[in-house]
């Protein structure tokens, strides 16, 4: 096979080491991983959007707000039960069977401990909100963390072995089953318990399917097998993820405590409308990027090339998507949720703009993880995250939209700080990444969003056609920009080329 035909969706096909077996195998694995992600995530996004739309039309903002009150507080247990050990297992150059077994028991123990602490804390959480209706929700969701703890190393093992197809299939199947359960319960009049059941079924089904696929019996814990190196790595990830979660949950807790469940329900739907595409793109792409980047962490040339290609796809994918979504927010909310949820519009517009920078900062996260510098990221976040929380909570006097504005400003500043710090700590030159991001935002994302907003606002027809007109207008602008601006044409062709190479696998 000629070098230029190397099926590496993230390479440029002309590197000097492309002919080696290692490069060929890794390129194939990366391409297969990206291909699986692209194929399955389209289905996951459709399912998740279907869930968001159907449940929003069957339930009330207060239903979502009450559940969000609980998850904003107890959700930190999801970070603790993982303790960064999933990433540590994927990143490790060598992992013995005994270490793998002990990691399983460590995550299960952490998940069980989290469940017991949550149950014991129920009176404090109820008293803190002054809302007795959330007590049964706390008890019901607590033991989800035991299931997730048991699943942690099954999922990590499939990531480590680059079994992206099996991993995607299990998560897609579990999501489908959970959505069917939730919608059925909502139609039966179960109210907020439809949302609770969706979370329980997702965790349980994912675990059972992963066990069936992997056919791994961890056995009993192994004495004399140390996990110190994994906990050392995981501590930085735990701290970073914990601070990120506190940043997210602080807004929910503040809104729920000061404004009540109904405003929190509006914020929650706007946030879910933002995070549905982001979670279905960012998390799986991390599952592909982390093991691949970890294997080339000592090859600066290939490492930088993979980063550049991945970010280009993100800029022409996620960033443009969010900008256009913000532009057509008003008719989009009417189509998806109906007129009762019109209060979501200004919140979503601001969150979507901030979400662009949230996505771009993920690149820095990948670099920290792949280079094993989780401690450095934690030290950065110990300074940055409290400032971000202050910016979000500081918007409370202006209501839910004020909190959303603080959210957007916080993630813009975090993106700048993360890029500066990751270059200082790891030595990776991020200037090309920064230039690409700024160029795409000014020449592509922002104009596409403005064109979509202009057309959607100008038309006064059925909201669905306003959304379609806005999206088509943004597409026409993108084609004109590619025709008139060589740099945009080059970037767009490169992004399409990477996607096509991935799909061929």
Automatic annotation (TrEMBL):
This is Lipopolysaccharide biosynthesis protein. The keyword Membrane applies. It is found in: Cell membrane. Keywords: Cell membrane, Membrane, Transmembrane, Transmembrane helix. Residues 1-22 are annotated as: Disordered. PANTHER family: LIPOPOLYSACCHARIDE BIOSYNTHESIS PROTEIN WZXC, PST FAMILY PREDICTED COLANIC ACID TRANSPORTER. Belongs to the polysaccharide synthase family. It comes from Spongisporangium articulatum. Pfam families: Polysacc_synt_3 (PF13440). It comes from the Bacteria. CDD domains: MATE_tuaB_like (cd13127). InterPro entries: Poly_Biosynth_Transport (IPR050833). It is a multi-pass membrane protein. The chain crosses the membrane at residues 102-121, 133-151, 172-194, 312-337, 343-370, 382-398, 404-422, 434-455, 467-488.
């Amino acid at each position: 096979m000629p070098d230029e035909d190397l099926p590496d969706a993230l390479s440029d096909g002309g590197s000097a080491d492309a002919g080696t077996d290692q490069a060929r195998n890794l390129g194939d694995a990366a391409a297969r991983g990206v291909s699986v992600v692209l194929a399955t995530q389209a289905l996951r996004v459709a399912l998740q959007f279907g869930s968001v739309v159907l449940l929003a039309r069957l339930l009330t903002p207060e239903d979502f707000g009450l559940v969000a009150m609980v998850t904003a507080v107890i959700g930190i247990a999801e970070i603790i039960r993982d303790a960064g050990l999933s990433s540590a297992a994927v990143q490790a150059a060598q992992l013995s069977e005994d270490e793998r077994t002990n990691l399983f028991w460590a995550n299960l123990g952490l998940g069980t401990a989290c469940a017991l602490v949550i149950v014991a804390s129920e009176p404090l959480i109820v008293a803190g909100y002054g809302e007795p209706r959330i007590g049964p929700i706390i008890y019901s969701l607590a033991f989800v963390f035991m299931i997730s703890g048991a699943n942690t190393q099954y999922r990590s093992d499939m990531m480590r072995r680059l079994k992206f197809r099996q991993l995607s299939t299990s998560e897609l199947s579990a999501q489908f089953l959970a959505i069917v359960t939730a919608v059925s319960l909502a139609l039966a009049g179960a109210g907020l318990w439809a949302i609770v059941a969706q979370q329980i079924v997702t965790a349980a089904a994912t675990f059972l399917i992963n066990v069936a696929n992997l056919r791994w019996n961890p056995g009993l814990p192994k004495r004399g097998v140390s996990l110190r190196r994994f906990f050392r790595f995981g501590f930085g990830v735990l701290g970073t993820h914990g601070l990120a979660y506190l940043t997210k949950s602080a807004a929910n807790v503040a809104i729920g405590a000061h404004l009540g469940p109904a405003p929190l329900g509006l914020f929650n739907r706007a946030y879910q409308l933002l995070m549905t595409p982001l979670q279905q793109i960012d998390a799986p792409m991390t599952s592909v990027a982390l093991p691949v980047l970890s294997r080339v962490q000592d090859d600066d040339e290939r490492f930088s090339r993979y980063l550049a290609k991945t970010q280009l796809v993100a800029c022409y994918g996620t960033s443009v998507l969010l900008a256009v979504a913000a532009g057509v927010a008003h008719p989009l909310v009417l189509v998806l949720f109906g007129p009762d949820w019109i209060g979501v519009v200004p919140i979503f517009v601001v969150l979507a703009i901030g979400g662009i920078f949230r996505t771009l900062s993920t690149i820095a996260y990948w670099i920290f993880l792949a280079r094993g510098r989780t401690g450095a990221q934690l030290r950065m976040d110990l300074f940055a995250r409290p400032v971000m929380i202050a910016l979000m909570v500081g918007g409370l006097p202006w209501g839910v939209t004020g909190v959303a504005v603080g959210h957007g400003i916080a993630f813009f500043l975090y993106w700048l700080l993360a890029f500066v710090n990751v270059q200082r700590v790891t030595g990776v030159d991020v200037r090309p990444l920064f230039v690409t991001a700024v160029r795409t935002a000014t020449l592509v994302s922002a104009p596409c969003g403005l064109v979509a907003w202009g057309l959607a606002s100008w038309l006064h027809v059925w909201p669905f056609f306003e959304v379609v007109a806005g999206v088509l207008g943004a597409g026409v602008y993108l084609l004109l920009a590619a025709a008139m601006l060589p740099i945009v044409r080059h970037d767009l062709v490169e992004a399409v080329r990477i996607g096509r190479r991935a799909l061929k696998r």
